[in-house]
Amino acid sequence: MFQMLNEKERNEKGLLREDAKSLRKLTREQLAELEEREKTPREKMMDLIITVLPAVVLAISLLEYTIMPDVNPNPMRHIYTVVLAIVFVAYTAAFILGKIKESKGDKKLIRSLRYRAPLYAAIAAILTLYDILTIKTNYFTYPLVPCVNSIMYAAWTDRAELLRCASHTLVLMFKGYGLGVVLGLITGITCGYSRKVNYWIDPILKFMGPIPISTWIPIIAVLSPSLSGGALFIIVVGVWTAVTNASRAGVANVDKAYFDAAKILGASERQLIFKVAIPAAMPNIMAGMTQGMMTACTAIMVAEMMGVKGGLGWYITWVKSWALYNNMFASLFIICLIFTIVTKILNMVKNRVLRWQIGVTK
Asked: Quick one: pLDDT at residue 35?
């Protein structure tokens, strides 16, 4: 009898362990699906309308651009037509694929489209309104404010120079960002861990922190032997300040109980720093690195506009002097695209490093 009960108890424990393993393997999407209540028919219809809305707005934008006459010169006007058609087909195909997967139980794609649909629809609507106000009605003065097709035409015709300037900007930005992050981590972690070091560094941070990036330009112009070196210095200073402040605050705010427990277990000073302080302060450190990237994006434009012979900032100043506003807007678009991609990559790294903050695995 007791043997049968023990065997039954072991089987139940085994099933519980299997259930625990299964729960650990659940993704966030699967947990959300388990917790989600059944939607009403009205809610399902609203979800469908919102998800389809970007395709509807894109179709309206395509019709508006092709049917309404242009009031200003618009060379190679088919460029924007092709882009709109490609985006429309891509989104429609993604929607159809998402509905097919949803019918088979996989709701990940359709959920993603539903979440991003309002933003996509708003962007398409803004571009449509912008096109109407520029090339269709001349509400904005031509050529000071070019239409979307003119910007794309300028980017295509001057693509070689834009690519060269973009590569120059990326190289200079990553050199300054990398150096600023390394120096900021060393300074910030040391200041957060040692009061003696913080005593000397804190006044420097309080003095340099409020100074805008553009304020350094006349100082660099006088002291720096080369404009490239001065531009690098501006980026490093901006990134160093952001990363130092964030990492210092993160290390200083680590619970003292962690250090006490590690000391009881025999941890050395090196282990206290690398095994306790830095991992516990990692959320602040990553936030500082993200803020440093934003600072670097601003600093690189300021640095290049002060006279560096290369980069997208220099390109903007150069084409503006020749009244090539189409090219200027094209470079601005490329700057936004590059910085968006770089920030997205940095956020992916942040999510990977801080994956322990997420309750379930992806």
From this structure: 53
